[in-house]
Amino acid sequence: MIKVMTSAERHTVHNGGIHGEFSFSFGEYEDPHNEFFGSLLAHNEYVLEPKQRMERSYHHDLIMVYFVLDGTLSYEDDTGERIELGPGSVYVVNTGTGGAHTQKNEDETRSVRYLQLWLLPEELGQEPTHHYAEFTREQRLNQLFPVASGVKGESGATLQLDARLYSTILETGGRVSHSVAEGRRVHLYVVNGNVEVTTDEGVYQLSAGDTARIHQCEEIQVKGIAAEGASEWIAIDLP
């Protein structure tokens, strides 16, 4: 089955120079019918205007994935980790036993746009870890490319969970397909452009900001259908 959530259905927050779009219950947004999808607990998109920062917060036993779309995101936490993340960067933080962290935009003129995913790890109480990877447009063009994975030997930042995060840029008319194993599910999100998603249940057209939650489906096909330019999207295959 497939459930499509349009961009307009996401919860939107504005806090000064911070803009957020939430696909699941998060912070002050509480919806008992929209709290998680398998082990995916949160999927947020943020835009930080110049010199803006997120409030420092404490978390434990979460896998937090940051995927930068535009601009440069500065991440830091109380383990001493400090890193600058540019476009195409994927950064995976397993908070484990816990820690406080923040993200900020130190640029004086340019905004930063990024995705944040929260997942439930397979084991609790681990030591905090950080994993970084960076990818070009060419690597993701017209193919389903893993940018983070819990499968040993695969490319991408390491996930401490049996899941894969894919990033794809499809030219108009370009197609990719993905087989979904029994008991697995796929969360697909359109970053830019327009795509056509075909499953056992039918054909669905998605625009930027739309998501599709797909479960109990054997095969997914995605086609780029933007009138101009390419279409960018991510998909996470997870338990």
Q: How would you briefly describe this protein structure?
A:
The chain has one helix at residues 137-140, and strands spanning 2-5, 11-15, 18-22, 40-48, 57-59, 63-70, 73-77, 82-85, 89-94, 99-104, 112-119, 129-134, 145-149, 157-158, 164-170, 175-179, 185-192, 194-199, 202-207, 211-215, 219-224, 231-238.
Explain what this protein looks like in three dimensions.
It is a single chain. This protein has 239 residues and is an all-beta fold. The chain has two domains: 7-134, Jelly Rolls (Sandwich); 138-238, Sandwich (Jelly Rolls), CATH 2.60.120.10. The protein has one helix at 137-140; strands at 2-5, 11-15, 18-22, 40-48, 57-59, 63-70, 73-77, 82-85, 89-94, 99-104, 112-119, 129-134, 145-149, 157-158, 164-170, 175-179, 185-192, 194-199, 202-207, 211-215, 219-224, 231-238. A seven-stranded mixed β-sheet has the order 1-20-17-22-15-13-14. The chain has a seven-stranded antiparallel β-sheet with strand order 2-3-4-11-6-9-12, with no helix packed on it. A four-stranded antiparallel β-sheet has the order 5-10-7-8, with no helix packed on it. The mean pLDDT is 95.
Give the count of structural domains. Answer: 2
Helix proportion range? under 10%
Protein structure class: mainly beta
Please identify which CATH superfamily of the largest domain we are dealing with: Jelly Rolls
**N-C termini distance:** 15 Å
**Order of neighbouring strands in the sheet with most strands:** 1-20-17-22-15-13-14
Q: Helical region count?
A: 1
Strand content range: over 45%
Return the string of H and E elements.
Answer: EEEEEEEEEEEEHEEEEEEEEEE
Task: Kindly state the number of beta strands.
Answer: 22
Stretches with pLDDT under 50, minimum 5 residues: none
Looking at the structure, the CATH topology of the largest domain is Jelly Rolls
Mean pLDDT: 95
Name the CATH architecture of the largest domain: Sandwich
User: Shape, please?
Assistant: globular
Gyration radius, to the nearest Å?
17 Å
- Biggest beta-sheet profile: 7 strands, mixed
So what's the CATH class of the largest domain?
Mainly Beta
